[in-house]
Amino acid sequence: MKYCNLKNALIIASSVFSAANAGGFFPKKTVKYYEKPAQSSAAVSSAVATPLNITQISLDALKRDYPNMEFKIGNVLRNDEAKTAYVHVSQAVNGYEIINSAANINIDIPSRSIISSGIAVWEDVEPFNPADHGLEDLNLDVEDALAKVAEYFNYPYDKDETEFTEKNGIYTIDGVKFTIDKKARAEKKYITISEKYVDSVWELSLEVGQIWYLARVSSTTGGLLNVENIASHAVYNAIPWNKVDITGGRMLFVDPYDKNASPLGWHKTDEKTTSNDTSGNNIIVQENHQGSEIDMVTNRAYGGADLIFDYPLDLNSKKVESYFGAAATNVFVLTNKLHDVYYKFGFNEQFGNFQVNNFGKGGAGNDPVKVLIQDRSGTNNANFATPVDGYSPKMRLYPFTSKSPERDSSFVNQIIIHEYSHGVTQRLTGGPDKTSCLSSDESNALSEGWSDFFAIAMELTKSSKRSDAHNMFEWLYGTYARSKPICSDMTINNLTYSSLTYNANGQLECHEGGEVWVNALNEVLWNFIELRGVSEDVSKGNINSKSEGNVLAIQLVIDAVKIQPCNPSFLEARDALVLAQKQRFNDSKLHCAIWKGFAKRGMGVNAQPPEETGSKIVYTDNFDLPSECK
Ligand SMILES: [Zn+2]
């Protein structure tokens, strides 16, 4: 569903749309300084202005300028030495504060006159009514709202175990499993979601591990509208890492890094150095709007001191540049996540992964991946270049001008997984200090196949089926990125070993060759899934022989890439996978699942390397299984 009419309804996910980050989304402020009035001695001696009077003076002043507006008094403070009273006021709706509004009025105590004010309020806003937008009003109570937060952040929560008490509009919830003190505090407020609407929210104050934040959940739609860090932790508005592309919308993520893979998080390169933009130990994301061919420092998205990367996104904009912040944030989150996921599967410091600081764990440092997004040096494509360990690889993501309005590959996680994976297989084949071990015709094709395979295996869901047809990068290319969808159904995709052909230049086209390879791996993947089921998020859980099919497939392909020779052929890469399984699990079912997958696609146990017949190079299918699998 889309809420194009709401200026700041930024998230297109079905139930979630976002208020912009709390720090940056305030109305225009009107500041006034008044001449301090002359003070008569009589006035000074009768300076007994009570907080009530001060409050009334402030409200009267506000009512003069904004007669139809409702206000709620916050703090009333006074300092008699400074002869000043300080009144803090919020705009209100139905008696509840609008979070992103503020007025402060300073009063000279002796004369009771206003000396200055700063007013940031919303004129002409009205409460958001879900029914006007075809939505149901969920009318969440405070415990429902907490359940929503638990759901968004994947925390364990059981409503039956909680109990709430209310005092002066502040709710305390006891029995909350996931907070440090087993409590949550909540208050009903309003937040502006566009220049026209305010939405009612439950503001929950939660201390979870080292994170202490305010989460604002819409009581009408259930959407997580806004998260504010009280402690300094990073918040990102990004596509869930394992979703194919932007079509399912974005969500807010708080500190999504893996402690084992990124011990200092994603912004620190050592204890003393923190970035507050889209750069850190694993990744540097910046724009290349000038289309420069040479390396230069350009803009990155900025998260401020609180590291809040919550940027607006309007995909209807003519030019991708207009939503650079949102694009950089998504790429930063996903590529860091891939760093952490591949770490778990064994692409770590020793094996040449991409980090500034290797924390003394081996390998060469100083090689975070540099990602140039919205790169105007090209169009309608993406690529990844990998030098030896110790030198930064470079990923380039070009705008897709073949679409109107143009589309940004920064919002297609599938293509970013594909590109990043090129770097992984490149560093792992032949060791991290070799760059030319995937340069033969067949190994180049293998590289394309692995990259598609990893993207598919990481993006499966519980409802994925063997017969699913994967149109790679569909949001960018339509159905034309590959010659056929990747699919286990031979009527949809009949590519086999014998489909490998050399073109007129005597070259095996790497993407066409890659299609043969990924379809074979897809068979193995589904044979595994039929044995062990599917994981919707392969970054979670430990890996062992009981893991889900896609987890096992990713692990064994990584293991195989590590043991295969430099410039492997298709059959050598297949044999490496068989061997990797024996090394790690030595499970007869998995063993035969691998052989059945390859045999189906013409790379059975008796398949041979290609033969040169005259001027032609010919691959011949073989569908034989080893005797133990018959
Ligand atoms: Zn590729």
TrEMBL record:
Active-site positions on this chain: 419
Residues reported in the UniProt entry to bind Zn(2+): 233, 418, 422, 448
Swiss-Prot/TrEMBL GO biological process terms: proteolysis
Top-level enzyme category: hydrolase
Cofactor note: Binds 1 zinc ion per subunit.
Keyword terms of this UniProt record: Hydrolase, Metal-binding, Metalloprotease, Protease, Secreted, Zinc, Zymogen
Cofactor(s), names only, from the UniProt record: Zn(2+)
Name of the protein: Extracellular metalloproteinase
EC number: 3.4.24.-
Gene3D superfamilies cross-referenced by the UniProt entry: 3.10.170.10, Neutral Protease Domain 2
Family: Belongs to the peptidase M36 family.
Localization: Secreted
Single Gene Ontology MF annotation: metalloendopeptidase activity
Any one GO CC term of the record: extracellular space
Pfam families: Peptidase_M36
CDD domains xrefs: M36
